[in-house]
Specification:
The complex is a heterodimer of chains A (191) and B (309).
Chain A (H helix, E strand, L loop, with lengths): L2 E3 L8 E4 L2 E11 L7 E8 L5 E7 L3 E3 L3 E11 L3 E6 L6 E5 H4 L11 E7 L2 E6 L3 E9 L12 E6 L4 E5 L7 E5 L4 E5 L4
Antiparallel strand pairs in A: 1-6, 2-3, 3-4, 4-5, 7-8, 7-10, 8-9, 10-11, 12-13, 12-15, 13-14, 15-16
Chain B lengths: L10 H20 L3 E2 L5 E2 L18 E2 L4 H9 L5 E8 L11 E10 L3 H16 L5 E4 H9 L8 H10 L8 H15 L4 E8 L8 E4 L2 E11 L2 E8 L4 H17 L9 H10 L3 E7 H9 L16
Parallel strand pairs in B: 1-4, 6-7
Antiparallel strand pairs in B: 2-3, 4-5, 5-11, 7-9, 8-9, 9-10, 10-11
Helix pairs in contact in B: 1-9, 2-8, 4-6, 5-6, 7-8
The chains are: A mainly beta (191), B alpha+beta (309).
């Protein structure tokens, strides 16, 4: 297995920490004038998203994690798992369970292109596209006179997600949503 | 990104750096302290476990500090003196480290370490302006941050404190103390302070003294805005003790599979001839300039940092 020494540490490096795949966020060389050199590093656990801080001896090594990220098309959900296919014409397919798909499940619809992270060739996380277009399934009828005050109301989208939308939005409207913030961006011209 | 031929530091920082150099030289001239220049290349180097030297193809070493040469001058009758010039440390690169850096090192005959601290304080005041400078013993400094008394508490308790503060593995006692010290510096909000009376594990070439029935090293560090700026000693004068520490460092190096470093016999002979009582201190000049100009990393005060040469 490949290893990385602390002097090869660069942000973005994928390593195993306590047996879990992590990405290195930042590393700083720290050394008291008359003392041992350390590397103070921050890691993000790729499975849980938690950030871990660790201090390592300089020169210490960490095992590389076999982690890769691919663009994949979301194919379908079979009731248990979400199925994805690589877009690089390898047509390789992967199935991810609900824990792995996580937050992404409330945004994605068939044929969306997602970023899927694999660890040892199995999905560990799914990122939806930054922007998705989704139709409104349910929302209270708008009160047109109120728009001047810029109020908002909840709307349920066809994927089940709930977002705050302006009062003039009606059922059947297609909305553009920023999945990173979960916020309404505007009405979509695409359908 | 700047084109790669460009300097690391903004030009105005290099101009301010020049002003600091003038102030420093005037400070010493005013006090009648002689500037000396000793070789950057020597056939020996320091055996300290935590300092790696750059070894040249002919077997000589780039000096990690002018300490050994300056002590040979002092033993030969040179009065108080200083050197301002480049030193080199293998592998030390980071936000506040560059493998080549500028060290201001000076020795004061007849000074105690506390008299030398006073002088360091005045020099820093001249460069950075006035500010309070508190003094903490190493023991109090650690106790204030971690409620841990390294005189009284066991090695096991030491490891527990380190682990709850994000320290991973089962390290040697010296390493854990280094780690806690670095962490305490990161936590302390004073803008300028001295830490003194270090544990004997980090004795280097400083005298040992007694504090509350425990042995401590008569050594101090000046911290400014969380950065170690200066490291000073009441200098060790006993050649037998010097030989003992050099042997100890060599065997520690062997145990940890580090490059062997031979004893500097000329330094030993100079100490046998007699080093006058003195205190000495080394100041990281780049860092001092960095604080003076408000830089966020050492590269902002270096004409060309190591990755741009």
């Amino acid at each position: 297995m490949a290893t990385y020494s602390t002097n090869e540490f660069r942000p973005g490096l994928k390593v195993l920490l306590e047996g879990e795949p992590c990405v290195l966020l930042e590393a700083e060389f720290v050394k008291p004038g008359k003392g041992q050199a350390f590397t103070r590093a921050k890691f993000k656990n790729l499975v849980t998203g938690r950030v871990w801080e660790r201090t390592l001896r300089s020169g210490e090594t960490m095992e590389a994690a076999d982690v890769s990220e691919y663009e994949m098309e979301y194919l379908y959900n079979d009731g248990y798992q979400w199925h994805f296919m690589r877009t690089d014409e390898s047509f390789e397919q992967f199935a991810a369970d609900e824990k792995v798909v996580g937050e992404a499940k409330q945004w994605i619809t068939e044929q969306d292109r997602c970023q899927v992270t694999l660890w040892n060739n199995a999905p560990i996380s799914v990122s939806p596209p930054n922007f998705v277009n989704l139709a409104v399934k349910e929302t209270d009828a708008g009160v047109r006179g109120d728009t001047a005050q810029g109020g908002s109301k909840p709307a349920v989208l066809k994927t089940g997600a709930t977002v705050r939308v302006p009062l003039f939005i009606e059922e059947g409207d297609v909305l553009k949503i920023d999945t990173r913030t979960g916020q309404y961006v505007g009405r979509s011209k695409e359908t | 990104m700047n084109p790669r031929w460009q300097p690391s530091a903004p030009i105005e920082n290099l101009q301010k750096r020049s002003e600091v150099l003038w102030k420093v030289r005037e400070f010493f001239r005013h006090r009648g302290i002689c500037e000396v220049q000793t070789p950057v290349v020597g056939s020996n180097t320091v055996a300290d476990l935590n300092i790696e030297s750059v070894r040249l193809a002919n077997g000589n070493f780039l000096q990690t500090s002018p300490e050994y040469f300056l002590k040979r001058l002092l033993a030969a009758g040179m009065p108080s003196c200083y050197q301002l010039g480049p030193v080199f440390r293998e592998g030390e690169a980071g936000r506040w480290h560059n493998p080549e850096f500028t060290m201001l090192e000076w020795y004061r005959l007849g000074f105690s370490s506390s008299e030398l601290r006073q002088e360091v304080k005045e020099l820093v005041k001249l460069v950075l302006g006035p500010s309070d400078v508190r003094e903490y013993t190493f023991r109090d400094f650690l106790f204030n941050e971690f409620q841990f008394d390294f005189f009284e508490q066991s090695g096991e308790e030491l490891h527990n404190v380190a682990q709850t503060n994000g320290y991973g593995a089962d390290f040697r006692r010296e390493e854990v103390l280094d780690f806690l010290y670095s962490s305490a510096i990161a936590k302390c909000n004073d803008s300028r302070y001295f830490v003194l009376d270090f544990p004997v594990e980090s004795s280097a070439l400083a005298e040992v003294r007694e504090l509350d029935g425990h042995q401590v090293v008569d050594r101090f560090e000046l911290i400014v805005k969380g950065l170690e700026i200066a490291n000073g000693y009441n200098e060790l004068r006993d050649p037998a003790e010097l030989e003992h520490r050099m042997k100890r460092d060599r065997s520690a190096r062997r145990q940890l599979h580090r490059a062997d470093v031979e004893m500097d016999q000329r330094l030993l002979e100079a100490m046998e001839a007699g080093l006058p009582q003195c205190s000495g201190v080394a100041v990281g000049l780049d860092r001092l300039v960095a604080v003076a100009v408000g830089a966020e990393k050492i590269q902002q005060v270096l004409s060309f940092a190591h990755n741009q040469i």
